[in-house]
Design a protein that fits this description.
This protein has 190 residues and is an alpha+beta fold. The chain has a single domain, classed as VC0467-like (3-Layer(aba) Sandwich). The protein has 5 helices and 10 strands; from the N terminus they run E-E-E-E-H-E-E-E-E-E-H-E-H-H-H. Strands 1, 2, 3, 4, 5, 6, 7, 8, 9 and 10 form a 10-stranded mixed β-sheet that branches.
């Protein structure tokens, strides 16, 4: 009988939600959207880390298309000088420079012409850097209790930073994960 890997059910479009046990400051209370998951590794972006950098200051050509707030989001600690753009295409649209990830969510090539994209996206967000794991690394972290793997929704990618996405995602799972959503930021304050 073959044992299932802890990350066997992960697919692009799913979320990794940081356990309260995860104390790496890069990932404390992070909600990560999975972009790619293969035997040799996993890539995603942190959805709930807006920066103070206005998108107009770094990618002005994409500012008008971006979902609010129009800031650069911190996608993760890997290659923070590179940008990834998640966009939700309108039904039936396959935008130029866009690669599907899950349903109508996909990656948009920031080198493509944004003028051609005005009527094909219902949401767009730009991330500096990404989160990445090598082969077996994510499975080990899941086994250690660092991450919860849950279904994602397109609205999660474009969630208002004023909303506590970490709590919202956990609450909607019900049962044990909904209880974990009540875990205090600082357990010593409990």
């Amino acid at each position: 009988m073959c044992a299932l890997r802890p990350d066997a059910g992960i697919e692009p479009g799913m979320l990794l939600v940081a356990s309260p046990l995860l104390r790496d400051p890069n990932f404390t209370r992070a909600v990560i959207f999975i972009i790619d998951h293969r035997a040799d590794g996993t890539t995603g972006v942190i959805l709930n880390r807006p920066s103070e950098v206005q998108l107009v200051d770094v990618l002005p050509q994409w500012y008008e298309l971006a979902s609010g707030p129009r800031t650069l989001f911190l996608g993760g600690p890997v290659e923070t000088n590179a940008a990834l753009c998640l966009a939700q295409a309108l039904p039936g649209e396959v935008p130029v420079g866009w690669t599907a990830i899950s349903g109508q969510l996909g990656l948009t090539d920031l080198d493509s012409d944004p003028e051609q994209q005005h009527s094909v996206f219902s949401g767009l967000r730009v991330f500096a850097g990404y989160a990445g794991w090598g082969a077996q690394q994510l499975a080990d972290e899941i086994t250690e209790g660092a991450w919860f793997v849950v279904p994602g929704r397109p609205a999660d990618v474009f969630a208002d930073p004023e909303v506590d996405l970490w709590r919202e995602v956990l609450r909607r799972q019900g049962n044990r994960l909904a209880l974990i959503a009540t875990f205090p930021d600082d357990p010593r304050m409990n």
